[in-house]
Write a structure and sequence with these properties.
The structure holds 2 protein chains of 2 kinds. By secondary structure, chain A is an alpha+beta fold. Chain A is built from 3 helices and 4 strands. Chain A has a single domain, classed as Alpha-Beta Plaits (2-Layer Sandwich), CATH 3.30.70.260. In chain A, 33% of the residues lie in helices and 34% in strands. A 4-stranded antiparallel beta sheet of chain A has the order 2-3-1-4. In chain A, a hairpin with a 5-residue loop joins strand 2 and strand 3. Chain B folds into 3 domains: 171 residues, Thiamin diphosphate (ThDP)-binding fold, Pyr/PP domains (Rossmann fold, 3-Layer(aba) Sandwich); 153 residues, 3-Layer(aba) Sandwich (Rossmann fold), CATH 3.40.50.1220; 169 residues, Rossmann fold. Chain B is globular.
């Protein structure tokens, strides 16, 4: 998969918020890889990050839908410019 | 001042505090503590349905008719899973429904206990919010949050799963102060109103296309004022029907798959479409690539995720439909669209429906309209009858057309009409179904009898799952695979339930029976025997462009 966008989601550090966010991505059947979950540096806030193959319009639709999910604080979608990136967080941090 | 209550009592107290007065539900093992507490709260009327799906639809109907949160209750396992179709229906149509489910006790969760189901996992994609209550100390706050989420912004269903031991647990409870909190303020008006006004001033062929958001925000007067100040003709989507009076000279009709030819042609010729409170779904647009090829689109929508989701927009304005439409009314200059309206009149074709026999769906709907003076609320199921109602019933009053639009849920009408009746007890409510959809939830007649719910039920009986049969006729070589459907004797069925029932087979019987049904106290049932192969025309083939309507029975075509 040639990733086109890196997605970073800051969300509540609980399983329901995580499930909702992942469900939004899964439902759209977009190819993703490099899913990582980890602390964001803020207490009670998790960072979910992944690469995605999608055109800009689909990437923007996903961003809008993720923003609606209860428990999601913010979403960043960044075009992947460097093929050497190995981790989605590198594109958005 | 706090007092010690059980979790079940706290649930009831919070529902009362939220202004809930009706609950649709069905008891069972894991929700029994709630039902034990319920008689202590006479302000919470419980309606015992015959299937939990009906509880969700009834809560949905109540919510749509009242503008308040509708509540349904079920036990764990099968009770909870039976709610799923109703919650998905409410989710697709932005209806504020609160579902409360019992769950097995916390020590048993995850051990495949009797009637244990992961209802949180099941309903994650079809609710705005759901929560498994882990501790009684969080119960009251979760109920308040869930009610607020269901109601605020773009409305939708929420679910609270309450383990049985939490319902039985006791804890100190402090009631909320004063009345329930008012809905959260809508986001401030975004940019775009002035740009939209400029586009309206420049357009030669503008259209207003209004959807469910107009009804949800109550923007009736504002939309009418905008149409009348600018002379722009108005199109109402399926869920936007009754948001604009159909007798108004600027009203055009419904667009899309079964929209009138002149409406779809107007869309294809328009140079500006101002969409208010709709999401441009595929049943409206047909082939997206060919939708409104000449038009710039202004999209007014509460949900930012909907703007640009399906159609590219020239101007997107995010916010409450009523507030933004009012701003538009103030921003636009008076104008007329007489030449454009005349051009659209030239698109009008004679109705293509060729009903055999004299008991046409159109005649039935005209009879119901005349007998009620247009005052009743019509709740429809899904299929051919739904389209006939949408096209032929001349709605005048706001929010008097209620149907399952997005999910297209057969079996919706009868239970949803129960909710509508309880939200509007002084008004006539007709539930109109086909013979297929009616049989999905006809057990709810017993609920109506037991609870004294005055719903008039119309069955358009053509002996087929009519819309599927129509598709088989048009697109599947007329192979009527599994669509002929047998019905019981509906008059005897009505008799068995102890309600009035009639069968109407010709035009001569029609008006008298409709009048008698309206005059009968309590529920009543009327079967209308219509032509077996009556079709809904025109029809845009699935995936086709709005410019390619089928206006008469086509030659058989290969299956698609």
């Amino acid at each position: 998969m040639q990733a086109s966008h890196a997605v970073s989601v800051l969300l509540d550090d609980d399983l329901l918020a995580f499930n909702r966010a992942i469900g939004v991505v899964r439902r759209r059947n977009l190819p993703v890889q490099g899913i990582t979950v980890g602390p964001s540096g803020q207490a009670g806030v998790l960072r979910l990050a992944f690469f995605m193959q999608a055109d800009d319009a689909n990437a923007m639709r996903l961003l809008r839908q993720l923003e609606k999910a209860h428990g999601v604080h913010s979403v960043t979608v960044t075009p992947v410019s460097s093929p050497s990136l190995t981790h989605p967080s590198e594109a958005v941090l | 001042m706090s007092e010690v209550l059980t979790g079940a009592q706290i649930l009831c107290r919070e529902l009362v505090a939220a202004g809930v007065d009706v609950i649709f539900g069905y008891p069972g093992g894991a929700i029994m503590p709630f039902y034990h507490a319920l008689p202590e709260y006479p302000g919470l009327r419980h309606v015992l349905v015959r299937h939990e799906q009906a509880a969700a639809h009834a809560a949905d109907g109540y919510a749509r008719a009242s503008g308040r949160v509708g509540v349904c209750v079920a036990t764990s396992g099968p009770g909870a899973t039976n709610l799923v179709t109703g919650l998905a229906t409410a989710h697709m149509d932005s209806s504020p429904v609160l579902a409360i489910t019992g769950q097995v006790g916390r020590p048993m969760i995850g051990r495949d206990a009797f009637q244990e189901t992961d209802v949180i996992g099941l309903t994650l994609p079809i609710t705005k919010y759901n929560h498994l209550v882990q501790d009684i100390s969080e119960l009251a706050a979760i109920v308040r949050e869930a009610v607020a989420i269901a109601r605020d912004g773009r409305p939708g269903p929420v679910l609270i799963d309450v383990p049985k031991d939490v319902q039985n647990q006791k804890a100190a409870y402090t009631p909320p102060e004063g009345k329930a909190a008012a809905p959260a303020p809508v986001p401030p008006l975004a940019q775009g109103v002035d740009e939209a006004a400029r586009l309206i001033a420049e357009a030669e062929r503008p259209l207003l296309m209004i959807g469910h958001g107009v009804i949800l925000s109550g923007a009736y007067a504002e939309v009418r004022a905008l149409a009348e100040k600018t002379g722009i003709p108005v199109i109402t989507t399926l869920l936007g029907i009754s948001a604009f009076p159909e007798s108004h000279p600027l009203h055009l009709g419904m667009p899309g798959m079964h929209g009138e030819v002149h409406v779809n042609r107007a869309i294809q010729h328009a140079d500006l479409i101002v969409g208010i409170g709709l999401r441009f779904d595929d049943r409206v647009t047909g082939n997206l690539a060919a939708f409104a090829p000449r038009a710039k689109i202004v999209h007014v929508e509460l949900d930012r995720a909907e703007v640009g989701k399906n159609v590219p927009v020239a101007v997107g304005i995010v916010g409450d439909a009523r507030q933004i439409t009012q701003r538009l009314v103030e921003a636009v200059r008076p104008r007329t669209c007489e030449a454009w309206v005349a051009e659209i009149r030239g698109f009008v074709r004679p109705r293509a429906e060729a009903f055999s026999g004299d008991l046409s769906p159109e005649a039935i709907l005209a009879s119901i309209y005349e007998a009620t003076g247009g005052s009743c609320t019509i709740v429809t199921d899904v299929g051919q009858h739904q389209m006939w109602v949408a096209k032929h019933y001349p709605y005048q009053r706001p929010n008097t057309h209620i149907t399952s639009g997005g999910l297209g849920t057969m079996g919706f009408a009868v239970p949803a009409a129960m909710g509508v009746h309880l939200a509007r007890p002084g008004e006539l409510v007709w539930a109109i179904s086909g013979d297929g959809g009616f049989q999905m939830n006809m057990a709810e007649i017993a609920t109506m009898v037991q609870e004294g719910l005055s719903v008039k039920m119309a069955i358009f009986n053509n002996g087929y799952l009519g819309m599927v049969r129509q598709w088989q006729q048009f697109f599947h070589e007329k192979r009527y695979s599994c669509t002929p459907i047998w019905s019981p004797d509906y008059v005897k069925l009505a008799e068995a339930y102890g309600i009035a029932g009639w069968r109407v087979e010709n035009r001569g019987q029609l008006d008298d029976v409709v009048r008698r049904a309206n005059a009968t106290p309590g529920p009543a049932l009327v079967e209308f025997v219509i032509a077996q192969e009556a079709n809904v025309y025109p029809m845009i083939p699935p995936g086709g462009s709005l410019s390619e309507p089928i206006e008469a029975q086509p030659a058989a075509t290969p299956a698609r």
